[in-house]
Amino acid sequence: MKGLFKSKPRTPAEIVRHTRDLLLFVDRNTETRESKREEKMSDLYKNIRELKQILYGNSESEPVSEACAQLTQEFFKEDTLRLVIKCLPKLNLEARKDATQVVANLQRQPVQSKLIASDYLEKNMDLMDTLMVGYENTDMALHYGAMLRECIRHQIVAKYVLNSPHMNKFFDYIQLPNFDIAADAAATFKELLTRHKSTVAEFLSNNYEWFFAEYNSKLLESSNYITRRQAVKLLGDMLLDRSNSAVMTRYVSSRENLRILMNLLRESSKSIQIEAFHVFKLFAANQKKPADIVSILVANKSKILRLLDDFKIDKEDEQFEADKAQVMREIAALEPRA
Amino acid sequence: MHPSSTTHFKPCFNFTLYLNIVQASFMATKQEEKSTKRVQYPLDPSSYKILDEIGAGVSAIVYKAICVPMNSLVAIKSIDLDRSRPDFDDVRREAKTLSLLSHHNILNAHCCFTVDQRLWVVMPFMAGGSLQSIISHSFPDGLTEPCIAVVLKETLNALSYLHGQGHLHRDIKAGNILVDTNGTVKLADFGVSASIYEYPNSSSSSTSASTSAPCLSSSSSIRLTDVAGTPYWMAPEVIHSHIGYSFKADIWSFGITALELAHGRPPLSHLPPSKSMILKITKRFRFSDLDKYRKGHGGKNKFSKAFKDMVASCLDQDPSKRPTAEKLLKHPFFKNCKGSDCLVKNVLQGLPSVEKRYKESKIMHETTPSDDDDHEGDMVKQENVKQRRISGWNFNEDGLELEPVFPPTPSDHHQTKEDDAIVKVVRFESEMVHDESQEHDVASLGAISKLNTSAINVNVNNENVAEHLMMSCIVDRSSRVEKIGGVQVGGVLNNKETMLTTLNVLKGSLEQELGQVKLIMNMIQGEEIHQVVDDRQEHMDQEISRLRTELENERKKSLQLELQLQNFRLN
Questions:
Q1: Max Cα separation, chain B?
Q2: Which family does it belong to (chain A) (predicted)?
Q3: Which residues are CB-contacts of B444 (< 8 A; sequence separation ≥ 6)?
Q4: Contact (Cβ atoms closer than 8 angstroms) between residue A200 and residue A239
């Protein structure tokens, strides 16, 4: 009997529909017989694996774009993604990984040269909230995190996530004790703040006050080495990006910010020092330094010059040396204002 | 609980009993799968008591420790994060891999957390240590075939799972295969592993691109291009990494590992790592070479046809002709493969503890004079390239180079280890004579590395390419220097034939170099399009003109050599 069915392979759309039915079954969770439940679960795992194989190919064959398009279309025609996200905690580890990879792949699948995943997400943005708070669940964090990172490839989704009330939770997620989860959250955070230039610039301008207050106190002044190092690097990336020039000008005009960066410049870790220098140089190079910035720099002139003079990096780097020389000239030339 | 106090499995010869054990272990893995919730190990350093150092590398140390609340032995790999790249992408990926892989033949992590500037990766303690450490301590001539089969089969199980998950290990070698007291074999160290789902190349392109979706097909689809691994075990296509490589690169390393287990060291390990790379590129290492060597050696190790056939299939120059891990598992060599008790009985019994072996190897290391990298000239660079990372419990990696036991030629295979070391030192000195050419090399390398750093700012992916080019330049140059050295130190040109071949090799190497310089230039030109910061561009322009002069010089040299070659032919 089984052989008879095997001879007629299911279409990708049929596999999606079958998967959806099984997910609905898992979601309702009305089956009381353990054996029956187990049978359905293993059927579900097989279907998810099949979806993955259509999308990624296997060791013998490469994916067929027609089949991928069909699968994608059927997947987003109904609320399958919501079901997948909802049921993910009920699956076993292998199926969770498969499902995550399927969701990730679908974000990049074009159907008639359109990314329909983006259209679907636009109408179902609340799913992003589920994925974001997923970092609080140790077992789900890496799966939800990977899905979230793929979803924010769509600019419209990144914009939603940046402005979501959960955004400030990232400051805590980055410092979770489990390194694998904290590092995943940090990668997502970085992606959010660097990928879509115009969206990031808009977000930073509109949320300047709270965002940098949190950034300074929770990240740059964290007691955790890796948090400080990642934060000062990301800060440099953000401020040095041309699209964020307005934010940069604002940032380097603050006396409090200068104090924090000067402390980072004095760290014992060489790596943090170097990254801190790339931000500090912006304060010094600013041609319209406010009076309080000038007075701090003047008051610490000799100390800063001595520190920079001794500041050597292992690799020879002409750019760094040139920057350093310029910063030292700027500071040396500063005179107290009357 | 001390490892030696653990009761050993009794060796059993009864087939039905053996089957029962196999079934039992199968059930065990099934159950593991069922409980998706992992036991949470404590995430603070105070819960662990460090007992002993059992391994060390450039940026990491491995300890044997006890997890006090759990009362269980663990291994802790402590990685210095200050040496890691600022985005921590590499450590993040390793940590993620370690927590998401779940296979009975893969050593994953209980947990990982930061302790100030260091990352602690807490793993199960594998009391037998790595096979490399076992071999170098107790089996310098290699293991017996039944034991090799067990180790390789378990490793293949891990590889087959790994590849199915879209992961490349990229550093398969005996040093990364660990054994527990009960004979369990686990593949370790995912420090340079890569996932096709999360590779920079596959995720950095623009949102609208449809071509960026990765795929699992082994034929052509993923194309990793960065050099990773340890030279002796690296597949030719990884060394030539600009053409790209995929899962089959692991199969090559697996084949080399098979030979390592059989002979006690990987082929070509008598050469410095860079040389083994050149040999693979120019001479093309063949399995038959090894056969020849074995005959000349008295053929103490007799291996079955099945074994040789299996290894040869892995070491095919053409990656597409190598079998997949899954297919290899069905190879006749693995039929009638014994259980893990075979390892307990034949390999693990009477073996000193991991920490003791590590201490011994450390002492040996310290007393070897050529250990000091400083006087090795440009070798230091290669050393750095190679040791950018540490292998899990790779206790004695340096020993492989310091005591090259694989004789260079049949004529001097009576030499002792000490003689070998001297030969090596002499070789380095002959390199020193050619200060001029070396200075030139250093200058151009400097140029490339500067390019390299400016490329980093633009695109991280290219950093890998540049790094690779830099490395192959080092390799090529050192070969050239050595060749010239050989000729001049030899002094007398008693053989026109030899001279001709030498010059030909030299010409080939120069041509290759030319190609590489062109590649770098192309890369930079490609880069220019994306370049936004003007002064950077200026900087690049300078570098390009510098490289052009460089190239011109090389062309002249190559011309001169060709003329010389012509002269010789005329004579």
A1: 81
A2: Belongs to the Mo25 family.
A3: B473, B547, B550
A4: no
Instruction: Indicate if B180 belongs to the active site.
Output: no
Cα–Cα distance between A256 and B499 in angstroms, integer?
Answer: 71
Say if strands A110-111 and B60-67 run parallel, antiparallel, or are unpaired: unpaired
DSSP B358: H
Give the tens place of pLDDT for each residue, B296-312. Answer: 444 445 788 999 999 99
B95, B207, B220: residue with CB nearest A180: B95
Q: Beta B177-179 vs B118-124: how paired, if at all?
A: unpaired
Q: Are B179 and B185 in contact (CB under 8 A)?
A: yes
Do residues A128 and A164 lie in contact, with contact meaning Cβ atoms separated by under 8 Å? yes
- Cα angle B4-B7-B12, degrees, rounded to a multiple of 5: 125
Collect all residues with Cβ–Cβ distance below 8 Å to A6 and sequence separation of at least 6: none
CB B46 within 8 A of CB B28: no
pLDDT digits (tens, 9 = 90+) for B517-569: 777 777 666 554 454 455 667 787 888 888 888 888 888 888 788 777 777 76
Q: What is the DSSP letter of B409?
A: S
Consult the annotation and say whether B77 binds a ligand.
Answer: yes
Among the options B171, B189, B378, B476, which is catalytic?
B171
CB proximity A186 to B under 8 Å: yes
Q: Where is B277: in which H helix or E strand?
A: helix B273-282
Contacts of B165 in chain A (CB under 8 A): 97
Among B131, B99, B129, B127, smallest CA distance to B112 is for B99
| pLDDT (mean) for B259-282 | 68
Which residues, including other chains, have CB under 8 Å from residue A280's CB and lie 6 or more apart?
A261, A262, A265, A327
Q: Show Cβ contacts of residue B385 under 8 Å, excluding neighbours closer than 6 positions.
A: B467, B471, B474
Q: State the burial class of residue A299 (Cβ atoms within 10 Å of its Cβ: 0-12, 13-18, 19+).
A: exposed
Single-letter residue type at A168: N
State how far the Cα of B493 lies from the Cα of B519, in Å rounded to an integer: 36
Closest CA to B231 of B274, B191, B177: B274
The 8-class DSSP code of residue B224 comes to B
Residue type, B144: T
- SS3 label, residue B234: coil
